[in-house]
Amino acid sequence: MRIALHYKNIDYEYRPIHLVKDGGEQRKEDYLSVNPKGEVPYFIDGDLKLSQSMAILSYIDEKWPQNPLFPDDRGLRSRCIQLSEIINSGIQPLQNLRVMQEVVKRFGCSDQEKKNWSSFWIEEGLSVLERELGLFKGPFSMGKDLTCVDLYLIPQIYNAKRFGIDLKRFPRLVDINDSCLKLDPFIKADPKNQPDSPSDL
Ligand SMILES: N[C@@H](CCC(=O)N[C@@H](CS)C(=O)NCC(=O)O)C(=O)O
Q: Could you say which architecture CATH assigns to the domain 74-193?
């Protein structure tokens, strides 16, 4: 989310939500009264209040059309959503904090089993993307222009590294990651440049 706002040069007020401290600020009544789903990101623009990153990105892109996040071509736009959802629906939910906490509670997994589970879904999703994004030539996921896919991919690669996943199997993804990490919006949104090291987009 922050990458998109920086890429489009939109001024915004950032309110950090600590996902772990004291059982997670996202689960406190203060935050649930704003976003009953208890997740980040959450985006407020005047009277509009939005959760769900894809809905937020699509709103931001329509309201501030500079530096577009989706291709103009209808088919490529759908491909862009499809490829983003491989991460957003196919990897992220399977190893989201609350999902993993519930898995541990119900099935008593060890830390190693938890790690294996998350790594499995990350590697599976990245393998699909390695093939899919290999069809596009250029520095970014869909070729010469940055798109929404890059906004999902780069944080997921950061996450894969945290899990110790060997990225040598994914040379196309590594190249895209290197291209994106040279750009200002990605540098500004890097977790190490955030006061609270959050994990949302
Ligand atoms: N489908 C949602 C996923 C949101 C989500 O799962 N966010 C994570 C952080 S990346 C979260 O808030 N987790 C808190 C928790 O699991 O308690 C989206 O695309 O925005």
A: Up-down Bundle (1.20)
